[in-house]
Design goal:
This protein is mainly α and about 200 residues long. It folds into two domains: about 90 residues, Rna Polymerase Sigma Factor, Chain: A; about 80 residues, Winged helix-like DNA-binding domain superfamily/Winged helix DNA-binding domain (Arc Repressor Mutant, subunit A). Helices cover about 65% and strands about 0% of the residues. It is built from eight helices and no strands. α2 crosses α4. The relative contact order is 0.09.
Amino acid sequence: MQKNHPTQPTDAVLVKDYINGSELALERLINRHQLQIFNFINSKINDRDTSEDIFQDTFIKVIRTLKNGLYNEEGKFLPWVMRIAHNLVIDHFRKSNRIPTVENNDEFDIFQFISDSAPNAENILVQEQVLKDIQKLVQELPEDQKEVLIMRLYRDMSFKEIAENTNVSINTALGRMRYAIINLRKLIEEHKIILEA
């Protein structure tokens, strides 16, 4: 790590410079990390063209987040970008493999409670607090429901993967998730957690 070397500004410095209007800073960030990020995506996708697309989408999201002033990773730029790339890879598999995801009937979506207006710093803080509160409540769920919920929401696993990992059918995994959400809603009401930002 050449943190103090004048010709090698840290990621945090480059992020700041980019937010302050330096396109060159972004170019340096991309050049510095593109190989690692692209190789990570390609190792999951195994198709160069699709990997290129996901790589582009990753940086579109990065740029949008930085431009909207929503980045606050305290210098952990690469892990943050990797998380974005990882989520886009998962989205790609969801679309292409038709992995059974729940229809948009809100049965499974904790985040439906959180208002979907454009996030500002205050909303983000509120959401972080809500997530901490919810994480505590998740611990109160029955073990099988908790396991499915954690795999789905925190590890971003598909129901197919959850079923394989827990040795149950996809329907059982879906059922457990449904009960987990129902129970979580009850707990949220009991604990009077305000989920509106």
